[in-house]
Design a protein that fits this description.
Helix content of chain A: 25-40%
Distance between the termini of chain B: 144 Å
Strand content of chain A: 25-35%
CATH architecture of the domain at 45-145 in chain A: Orthogonal Bundle
CATH superfamily of the domain at 45-145 in chain A: ApbE-like superfamily
Order of helices and strands of chain B: HEEHE
Shape of chain B: rod-shaped
Strand order of the largest sheet of chain A: 1-2-6-7-10-15-16-17
Distance between the termini of chain A: 33 Å
Helix content of chain B: 25-40%
CATH topology of the domain at 45-145 in chain A: T-fold
Number of strands of chain B: 3
Number of helices of chain B: 2
Order of helices and strands of chain A: EEHHEHHHEEHEEEEEEEEEEHEEHH
Largest sheet of chain A: 8 strands, antiparallel
Oligomer: heterodimer
Number of helices of chain A: 9
Largest sheet of chain B: 2 strands, antiparallel
Largest interface: A-B, 45 and 17 residues
Shape of chain A: globular
Radius of gyration of chain B: 44 Å
Strand order of the largest sheet of chain B: 1-2
Protein backbone atom coordinates (compact mmCIF):
# COMPACT_ATOMS: atom_id res chain seq x y z
CA UNK A 1 0.00 0.00 0.00
CA UNK A 2 1.47 3.32 -1.10
CA UNK A 3 0.73 6.40 0.96
CA UNK A 4 1.15 10.13 0.43
CA UNK A 5 0.63 12.79 3.09
CA UNK A 6 0.69 16.56 2.59
CA UNK A 7 -1.12 19.72 3.65
CA UNK A 8 -3.84 21.33 1.56
CA UNK A 9 -7.21 23.02 2.07
CA UNK A 10 -6.04 24.19 5.52
CA UNK A 11 -5.87 20.60 6.70
CA UNK A 12 -3.74 17.47 6.43
CA UNK A 13 -4.39 15.19 3.48
CA UNK A 14 -3.61 11.46 3.55
CA UNK A 15 -4.00 9.27 0.48
CA UNK A 16 -3.35 5.55 0.08
CA UNK A 17 -3.41 3.20 -2.91
CA UNK A 18 -2.58 -0.45 -3.51
CA UNK A 19 0.08 -1.10 -6.14
CA UNK A 20 3.54 -0.01 -7.19
CA UNK A 21 4.58 2.59 -9.74
CA UNK A 22 1.08 3.02 -11.11
CA UNK A 23 -0.26 3.72 -7.62
CA UNK A 24 2.50 6.28 -7.04
CA UNK A 25 1.59 8.01 -10.31
CA UNK A 26 -2.05 8.03 -9.21
CA UNK A 27 -1.20 9.59 -5.86
CA UNK A 28 0.81 12.32 -7.56
CA UNK A 29 -1.99 13.03 -10.03
CA UNK A 30 -4.56 13.19 -7.23
CA UNK A 31 -2.35 15.55 -5.24
CA UNK A 32 -1.97 17.88 -8.23
CA UNK A 33 -5.75 17.86 -8.69
CA UNK A 34 -6.37 18.76 -5.03
CA UNK A 35 -3.83 21.59 -5.07
CA UNK A 36 -5.35 23.14 -8.18
CA UNK A 37 -8.96 22.65 -7.05
CA UNK A 38 -8.58 24.22 -3.61
CA UNK A 39 -7.63 27.52 -5.19
CA UNK A 40 -10.82 27.56 -7.26
CA UNK A 41 -13.30 27.31 -4.42
CA UNK A 42 -11.58 29.10 -1.54
CA UNK A 43 -13.44 32.14 -0.21
CA UNK A 44 -10.14 33.47 1.17
CA UNK A 45 -8.59 33.98 -2.27
CA UNK A 46 -10.01 37.05 -4.07
CA UNK A 47 -9.14 35.56 -7.46
CA UNK A 48 -10.96 32.27 -6.82
CA UNK A 49 -14.07 31.48 -8.83
CA UNK A 50 -16.16 31.45 -5.67
CA UNK A 51 -14.94 34.89 -4.56
CA UNK A 52 -15.71 36.26 -8.02
CA UNK A 53 -19.23 34.85 -7.81
CA UNK A 54 -19.74 36.34 -4.32
CA UNK A 55 -18.69 39.72 -5.70
CA UNK A 56 -21.38 39.57 -8.37
CA UNK A 57 -24.43 39.60 -6.08
CA UNK A 58 -27.52 40.70 -8.00
CA UNK A 59 -25.90 40.10 -11.43
CA UNK A 60 -25.63 37.09 -13.68
CA UNK A 61 -22.27 35.37 -13.50
CA UNK A 62 -20.95 32.61 -15.79
CA UNK A 63 -19.68 29.71 -13.74
CA UNK A 64 -17.69 26.59 -14.61
CA UNK A 65 -19.41 23.22 -14.82
CA UNK A 66 -17.75 22.23 -11.54
CA UNK A 67 -19.06 25.25 -9.64
CA UNK A 68 -22.49 24.73 -11.16
CA UNK A 69 -22.39 21.11 -9.94
CA UNK A 70 -21.40 22.26 -6.44
CA UNK A 71 -24.19 24.84 -6.32
CA UNK A 72 -26.87 22.43 -7.52
CA UNK A 73 -25.65 19.80 -5.04
CA UNK A 74 -25.84 22.39 -2.26
CA UNK A 75 -29.37 23.27 -3.28
CA UNK A 76 -30.35 19.59 -3.21
CA UNK A 77 -28.99 19.08 0.31
CA UNK A 78 -30.47 22.39 1.46
CA UNK A 79 -33.87 20.92 0.56
CA UNK A 80 -33.19 17.45 1.97
CA UNK A 81 -32.02 18.80 5.34
CA UNK A 82 -34.85 21.27 5.68
CA UNK A 83 -32.46 24.21 5.31
CA UNK A 84 -30.09 23.15 8.12
CA UNK A 85 -27.35 22.71 5.57
CA UNK A 86 -27.07 26.18 4.09
CA UNK A 87 -23.91 27.51 2.42
CA UNK A 88 -25.43 31.01 2.28
CA UNK A 89 -24.48 31.73 5.91
CA UNK A 90 -21.22 33.46 4.93
CA UNK A 91 -22.30 36.97 6.05
CA UNK A 92 -23.11 35.57 9.53
CA UNK A 93 -19.87 33.61 9.60
CA UNK A 94 -17.93 36.82 8.89
CA UNK A 95 -19.92 38.62 11.57
CA UNK A 96 -18.87 35.93 14.02
CA UNK A 97 -15.25 36.79 13.21
CA UNK A 98 -14.42 34.07 10.68
CA UNK A 99 -13.55 36.47 7.85
CA UNK A 100 -10.04 35.18 7.21
CA UNK A 101 -8.43 31.75 7.06
CA UNK A 102 -8.20 29.81 10.32
CA UNK A 103 -4.40 29.95 10.14
CA UNK A 104 -4.64 33.77 10.02
CA UNK A 105 -7.14 33.88 12.90
CA UNK A 106 -4.82 31.79 15.04
CA UNK A 107 -1.91 34.16 14.41
CA UNK A 108 -3.67 37.54 14.09
CA UNK A 109 -6.93 37.00 15.94
CA UNK A 110 -10.46 37.10 14.50
CA UNK A 111 -11.65 39.88 12.22
CA UNK A 112 -13.78 42.86 13.30
CA UNK A 113 -16.83 41.16 11.85
CA UNK A 114 -18.65 41.53 15.14
CA UNK A 115 -19.44 45.14 14.25
CA UNK A 116 -21.04 44.17 10.96
CA UNK A 117 -24.77 44.62 10.54
CA UNK A 118 -26.79 41.45 10.74
CA UNK A 119 -28.10 40.67 7.28
CA UNK A 120 -31.39 38.76 7.25
CA UNK A 121 -30.91 35.18 6.03
CA UNK A 122 -31.53 34.55 2.41
CA UNK A 123 -32.68 31.17 1.19
CA UNK A 124 -30.51 29.18 -1.16
CA UNK A 125 -33.74 28.81 -3.15
CA UNK A 126 -33.41 32.51 -4.03
CA UNK A 127 -30.46 31.80 -6.33
CA UNK A 128 -31.38 32.03 -10.00
CA UNK A 129 -29.97 29.21 -12.10
CA UNK A 130 -29.57 29.41 -15.87
CA UNK A 131 -28.24 25.89 -16.45
CA UNK A 132 -28.46 26.11 -20.25
CA UNK A 133 -26.10 29.09 -20.41
CA UNK A 134 -24.04 28.10 -17.38
CA UNK A 135 -24.94 31.21 -15.36
CA UNK A 136 -26.17 31.88 -11.84
CA UNK A 137 -27.38 35.03 -10.10
CA UNK A 138 -27.07 35.37 -6.34
CA UNK A 139 -29.37 37.70 -4.41
CA UNK A 140 -27.62 41.03 -3.78
CA UNK A 141 -26.76 40.38 -0.13
CA UNK A 142 -26.00 36.68 -0.50
CA UNK A 143 -22.51 35.28 -0.15
CA UNK A 144 -21.73 31.59 -0.39
CA UNK A 145 -19.27 29.56 1.67
CA UNK A 146 -18.85 26.18 0.04
CA UNK A 147 -16.39 25.19 2.79
CA UNK A 148 -16.85 21.53 3.64
CA UNK A 149 -19.00 20.85 0.58
CA UNK A 150 -16.17 21.94 -1.72
CA UNK A 151 -13.69 19.92 0.31
CA UNK A 152 -15.89 16.82 0.06
CA UNK A 153 -16.38 17.34 -3.65
CA UNK A 154 -12.61 17.70 -4.19
CA UNK A 155 -11.94 14.53 -2.16
CA UNK A 156 -14.52 12.64 -4.22
CA UNK A 157 -13.07 13.79 -7.54
CA UNK A 158 -9.54 13.04 -6.34
CA UNK A 159 -10.60 9.51 -5.33
CA UNK A 160 -12.24 9.02 -8.76
CA UNK A 161 -8.96 10.03 -10.35
CA UNK A 162 -6.95 7.78 -8.04
CA UNK A 163 -9.18 4.75 -8.61
CA UNK A 164 -8.31 4.88 -12.34
CA UNK A 165 -4.76 4.01 -11.22
CA UNK A 166 -5.59 1.66 -8.36
CA UNK A 167 -8.78 -0.26 -7.63
CA UNK A 168 -8.15 -0.05 -3.88
CA UNK A 169 -7.48 3.41 -2.57
CA UNK A 170 -8.52 6.10 -0.11
CA UNK A 171 -8.39 9.89 0.08
CA UNK A 172 -8.76 11.75 3.37
CA UNK A 173 -8.74 15.52 3.90
CA UNK A 174 -9.06 16.47 7.53
CA UNK A 175 -11.24 13.45 8.19
CA UNK A 176 -13.45 13.76 5.11
CA UNK A 177 -12.64 10.36 3.64
CA UNK A 178 -13.55 8.35 0.56
CA UNK A 179 -12.67 4.64 0.56
CA UNK A 180 -12.60 2.68 -2.70
CA UNK A 181 -12.55 -1.14 -2.51
CA UNK A 182 -11.31 -3.08 0.49
CA UNK A 183 -7.66 -3.19 1.59
CA UNK A 184 -5.74 -6.40 0.79
CA UNK A 185 -4.30 -6.51 4.30
CA UNK A 186 -7.71 -6.82 5.91
CA UNK A 187 -11.35 -6.96 5.06
CA UNK A 188 -12.14 -3.42 6.27
CA UNK A 189 -10.65 0.02 6.46
CA UNK A 190 -10.00 1.19 10.01
CA UNK A 191 -11.05 4.72 10.96
CA UNK A 192 -10.32 6.25 14.33
CA UNK A 193 -12.96 8.62 15.61
CA UNK A 194 -11.15 11.49 17.30
CA UNK A 195 -12.43 12.51 20.72
CA UNK A 196 -13.75 16.06 20.15
CA UNK A 197 -12.80 16.96 23.74
CA UNK A 198 -9.19 15.89 23.33
CA UNK A 199 -7.61 15.53 19.88
CA UNK A 200 -4.98 13.16 21.27
CA UNK A 201 -7.62 10.62 22.25
CA UNK A 202 -9.72 8.25 20.18
CA UNK A 203 -13.37 7.83 21.07
CA UNK A 204 -14.14 4.80 18.92
CA UNK A 205 -12.90 2.88 15.91
CA UNK A 206 -15.01 2.35 12.80
CA UNK A 207 -14.59 -0.57 10.39
CA UNK A 208 -15.85 0.33 6.94
CA UNK A 209 -15.81 -0.93 3.37
CA UNK A 210 -16.25 1.16 0.23
CA UNK A 211 -17.95 4.33 1.45
CA UNK A 212 -17.45 7.92 2.52
CA UNK A 213 -16.91 9.08 6.11
CA UNK A 214 -17.32 12.70 7.20
CA UNK A 215 -17.13 14.25 10.65
CA UNK A 216 -18.39 17.69 11.53
CA UNK A 217 -17.24 19.18 14.83
CA UNK A 218 -17.62 22.44 16.75
CA UNK A 219 -14.31 22.02 18.56
CA UNK A 220 -11.87 22.10 15.65
CA UNK A 221 -12.26 25.66 14.37
CA UNK A 222 -12.82 27.87 17.38
CA UNK A 223 -11.73 31.36 18.37
CA UNK A 224 -12.52 33.96 20.99
CA UNK A 225 -14.50 37.08 20.16
CA UNK A 226 -15.27 39.62 22.88
CA UNK A 227 -14.68 36.99 25.53
CA UNK A 228 -16.99 34.49 23.84
CA UNK A 229 -15.88 31.20 22.35
CA UNK A 230 -17.12 31.07 18.77
CA UNK A 231 -17.05 28.25 16.25
CA UNK A 232 -17.57 27.97 12.51
CA UNK A 233 -20.85 26.08 12.41
CA UNK A 234 -23.53 28.72 11.92
CA UNK A 235 -27.14 27.80 12.68
CA UNK A 236 -29.09 29.22 9.72
CA UNK A 237 -32.13 29.64 11.99
CA UNK A 238 -30.36 32.10 14.31
CA UNK A 239 -27.39 33.36 12.28
CA UNK A 240 -25.15 32.58 15.27
CA UNK A 241 -22.69 29.75 15.99
CA UNK A 242 -24.94 26.78 16.71
CA UNK A 243 -25.74 25.73 20.26
CA UNK A 244 -25.59 21.98 19.87
CA UNK A 245 -26.39 18.81 21.83
CA UNK A 246 -23.28 17.16 20.49
CA UNK A 247 -19.65 18.12 19.95
CA UNK A 248 -19.26 16.11 16.77
CA UNK A 249 -21.27 14.04 14.32
CA UNK A 250 -19.83 11.47 11.93
CA UNK A 251 -21.85 10.30 8.93
CA UNK A 252 -21.09 7.22 6.85
CA UNK A 253 -22.62 7.28 3.37
CA UNK A 254 -22.06 6.13 -0.18
CA UNK A 255 -21.53 9.76 -1.27
CA UNK A 256 -19.20 12.15 0.47
CA UNK A 257 -21.20 15.27 -0.39
CA UNK A 258 -24.27 13.69 1.19
CA UNK A 259 -22.25 12.76 4.29
CA UNK A 260 -20.90 16.31 4.44
CA UNK A 261 -24.34 17.93 4.31
CA UNK A 262 -25.98 15.56 6.80
CA UNK A 263 -23.10 15.71 9.29
CA UNK A 264 -23.53 19.50 9.45
CA UNK A 265 -27.32 19.34 9.56
CA UNK A 266 -27.33 16.73 12.35
CA UNK A 267 -24.78 18.63 14.43
CA UNK A 268 -26.73 21.90 14.08
CA UNK A 269 -30.13 20.28 14.54
CA UNK A 270 -29.21 18.01 17.46
CA UNK A 271 -31.39 15.22 18.85
CA UNK A 272 -34.73 16.66 17.83
CA UNK A 273 -33.78 17.17 14.18
CA UNK A 274 -31.94 13.85 14.11
CA UNK A 275 -35.21 12.08 14.84
CA UNK A 276 -36.90 13.90 11.99
CA UNK A 277 -34.06 13.26 9.54
CA UNK A 278 -33.71 9.55 10.39
CA UNK A 279 -37.44 9.02 10.03
CA UNK A 280 -37.22 10.61 6.58
CA UNK A 281 -33.97 8.82 5.68
CA UNK A 282 -34.03 5.57 7.71
CA UNK A 283 -30.73 4.33 6.27
CA UNK A 284 -28.86 7.41 7.50
CA UNK A 285 -25.79 6.15 9.37
CA UNK A 286 -24.41 8.57 11.94
CA UNK A 287 -22.49 8.55 15.22
CA UNK A 288 -22.50 11.50 17.59
CA UNK A 289 -20.34 12.38 20.59
CA UNK A 290 -21.77 14.55 23.36
CA UNK A 291 -19.85 16.89 25.74
CA UNK A 292 -19.43 14.01 28.25
CA UNK A 293 -17.87 11.83 25.57
CA UNK A 294 -20.85 9.51 25.25
CA UNK A 295 -21.37 7.93 21.86
CA UNK A 296 -24.80 7.61 20.34
CA UNK A 297 -26.17 7.34 16.84
CA UNK A 298 -28.51 5.69 14.43
CA UNK A 299 -28.81 1.91 14.22
CA UNK A 300 -26.98 1.90 10.88
CA UNK A 301 -24.24 4.06 12.33
CA UNK A 302 -23.61 1.75 15.27
CA UNK A 303 -23.05 -1.18 12.93
CA UNK A 304 -19.74 0.34 11.91
CA UNK A 305 -18.46 0.33 15.49
CA UNK A 306 -16.55 -2.58 16.98
CA UNK A 307 -18.29 -4.78 19.55
CA UNK A 308 -16.99 -2.89 22.58
CA UNK A 309 -18.03 0.55 21.36
CA UNK A 310 -21.38 -0.83 20.16
CA UNK A 311 -22.24 -2.16 23.61
CA UNK A 312 -21.43 1.09 25.35
CA UNK A 313 -22.99 3.41 22.82
CA UNK B 1 116.28 -36.16 38.19
CA UNK B 2 115.41 -32.84 39.73
CA UNK B 3 116.63 -31.11 36.65
CA UNK B 4 114.44 -33.38 34.48
CA UNK B 5 111.36 -32.61 36.57
CA UNK B 6 112.09 -28.90 36.41
CA UNK B 7 112.52 -29.00 32.65
CA UNK B 8 109.30 -31.02 32.25
CA UNK B 9 107.33 -28.56 34.36
CA UNK B 10 108.74 -25.62 32.41
CA UNK B 11 107.91 -27.35 29.10
CA UNK B 12 104.32 -28.06 30.15
CA UNK B 13 103.92 -24.48 31.33
CA UNK B 14 105.27 -22.96 28.14
CA UNK B 15 103.17 -25.29 25.97
CA UNK B 16 100.05 -24.33 27.98
CA UNK B 17 100.79 -20.63 27.73
CA UNK B 18 101.55 -20.93 24.04
CA UNK B 19 98.38 -22.96 23.40
CA UNK B 20 96.34 -20.41 25.27
CA UNK B 21 97.81 -17.53 23.28
CA UNK B 22 97.38 -19.42 20.01
CA UNK B 23 93.73 -20.06 20.78
CA UNK B 24 93.20 -16.42 21.72
CA UNK B 25 94.70 -15.26 18.48
CA UNK B 26 92.68 -17.70 16.42
CA UNK B 27 89.46 -16.73 18.00
CA UNK B 28 90.24 -13.04 17.79
CA UNK B 29 90.84 -13.26 14.09
CA UNK B 30 88.05 -15.65 13.26
CA UNK B 31 85.15 -14.05 11.17
CA UNK B 32 82.28 -12.91 13.32
CA UNK B 33 78.99 -14.72 12.59
CA UNK B 34 76.79 -11.54 11.96
CA UNK B 35 79.29 -9.28 10.49
CA UNK B 36 78.66 -9.80 6.84
CA UNK B 37 78.24 -6.54 4.93
CA UNK B 38 77.14 -8.31 1.80
CA UNK B 39 73.58 -7.54 0.68
CA UNK B 40 71.01 -10.01 1.83
CA UNK B 41 69.96 -12.50 -0.69
CA UNK B 42 66.75 -13.26 1.29
CA UNK B 43 63.93 -12.57 -1.00
CA UNK B 44 61.03 -11.72 1.28
CA UNK B 45 57.61 -11.55 -0.39
CA UNK B 46 56.42 -7.98 -0.03
CA UNK B 47 53.32 -7.46 2.08
CA UNK B 48 50.48 -7.01 -0.37
CA UNK B 49 48.73 -3.68 -0.33
CA UNK B 50 45.01 -4.28 0.01
CA UNK B 51 42.69 -2.29 -2.15
CA UNK B 52 40.30 -0.05 -0.24
CA UNK B 53 36.86 -1.44 0.41
CA UNK B 54 34.52 -0.58 -2.41
CA UNK B 55 31.88 2.09 -1.96
CA UNK B 56 28.57 0.52 -1.05
CA UNK B 57 26.91 2.58 -3.79
CA UNK B 58 28.90 0.95 -6.56
CA UNK B 59 28.72 -2.65 -5.55
CA UNK B 60 31.89 -3.23 -7.57
CA UNK B 61 35.34 -4.21 -6.32
CA UNK B 62 38.39 -3.37 -8.40
CA UNK B 63 41.21 -5.90 -8.19
CA UNK B 64 44.27 -5.91 -10.48
CA UNK B 65 42.31 -4.26 -13.19
CA UNK B 66 39.67 -6.95 -13.19
CA UNK B 67 36.18 -5.91 -12.31
CA UNK B 68 33.90 -8.28 -10.64
CA UNK B 69 30.62 -7.95 -8.88
CA UNK B 70 30.78 -8.39 -5.16
CA UNK B 71 28.25 -11.05 -4.27
CA UNK B 72 27.67 -9.32 -0.95
CA UNK B 73 27.07 -5.90 -2.40
CA UNK B 74 25.16 -6.98 -5.45
CA UNK B 75 22.01 -6.84 -3.30
CA UNK B 76 22.35 -3.11 -2.85
CA UNK B 77 21.23 -1.93 -6.30
CA UNK B 78 18.20 -4.19 -6.03
CA UNK B 79 17.16 -2.53 -2.79
CA UNK B 80 17.70 0.90 -4.25
CA UNK B 81 15.64 0.08 -7.26
CA UNK B 82 12.60 -0.42 -5.08
CA UNK B 83 10.73 2.78 -4.24
CA UNK B 84 10.87 3.67 -0.56
CA UNK B 85 7.26 2.94 0.22
CA UNK B 86 6.89 0.14 -2.28
CA UNK B 87 5.50 -2.66 -0.23
CA UNK B 88 2.45 -4.23 -1.70
CA UNK B 89 1.82 -6.10 1.47
CA UNK B 90 2.09 -3.12 3.79
CA UNK B 91 -1.06 -2.77 5.83
CA UNK B 92 -3.47 -0.01 4.98
CA UNK B 93 -2.90 3.10 7.11
CA UNK B 94 -5.34 3.77 9.91
CA UNK B 95 -7.35 6.82 9.00
CA UNK B 96 -8.63 9.35 11.48
CA UNK B 97 -11.74 11.48 11.24
CA UNK B 98 -11.88 14.57 13.38
CA UNK B 99 -14.08 17.11 11.71
CA UNK B 100 -13.13 20.47 10.35
Amino acid sequence: MQTLEFRAMNTSVLMAAEGDEQAISGLQAARAFIEVSEKRFSRFLPESELSQLNGFGGKWYSVSEDLMELLTLSLRYFDETGGLFNPAILPDLKRAGYDKSMDSILTQGPGDGYNRMHIPQTSLRDIDFDITNGRVRLPKTMEIDLGGMAKGWIVEKASNLLRSYSSTCAVSAGGDIVFVGNPLSGSKWEVELEDPRNPDQTTAVLFVGQCAVVTSSITKRTWSQNGQIRHHLIDPRTGEPAKTDWLSVTVISSEITEAEAFAKALLIGGRSEAGRLTSKYPELAYISVDPEGHISGSQFGKEYLNEYDRIFS
Amino acid sequence: MKLFKFGLRLWIMLISVMSFLMGWIMIAHAPKPIQSSAPSTFNATPIPTLAPLPNADTGIIQNNGNLFQSPQLSVQPLIQALPQSSNNFAPAPIFRTSGS
